[in-house]
């Protein structure tokens, strides 16, 4: 069975926790382990924070879009912005790389996403925004049978 959720919200830092909780509540129906749920919440937090801080450069007029598809025990998560985009995706994915050192950003967002998810795809074009697609197969056998 396929189940899908879409949500959008203003690019405000205070909405990051809303995004985490909303995605976690939706994914919970697959009965993930606590570790899996924590990992999913963490990657949502990282991707949404990147969209707000880097994509929109803190401009609250921007909108962050989240789409989640649950199918056969797989969480397929897309987080998208229509912000400034990235010049060099490979450079942005390097551990410790940040364009905002003055904000004390660790530059570990993509590294965390890669470690917690089975697949990560990043599409970005200068001036049109960024799409981050993340996939995770949940370990729970029951979830795969629904």
Automatic annotation (TrEMBL):
Chain segments annotated as coiled-coil in the UniProt record: none
Molecular functions (GO terms): ATP binding; protein serine kinase activity; protein serine/threonine kinase activity; sigma factor antagonist activity
SUPFAM superfamilies in the cross-refs: ATPase domain of HSP90 chaperone/DNA topoisomerase II/histidine kinase
Family per record: Belongs to the anti-sigma-factor family.
Biological function: Binds to sigma F and blocks its ability to form an RNA polymerase holoenzyme (E-sigma F). Phosphorylates SpoIIAA on a serine residue. This phosphorylation may enable SpoIIAA to act as an anti-anti-sigma factor that counteracts SpoIIAB and thus releases sigma F from inhibition.
GO BP field: asexual sporulation; negative regulation of sporulation resulting in formation of a cellular spore; sporulation resulting in formation of a cellular spore
Name of the protein in its database record: Anti-sigma F factor
Organism: Pseudobacillus wudalianchiensis
Histidine kinase/HSP90-like ATPase domain: residues covered: 35-140
Superkingdom of origin organism: Bacteria
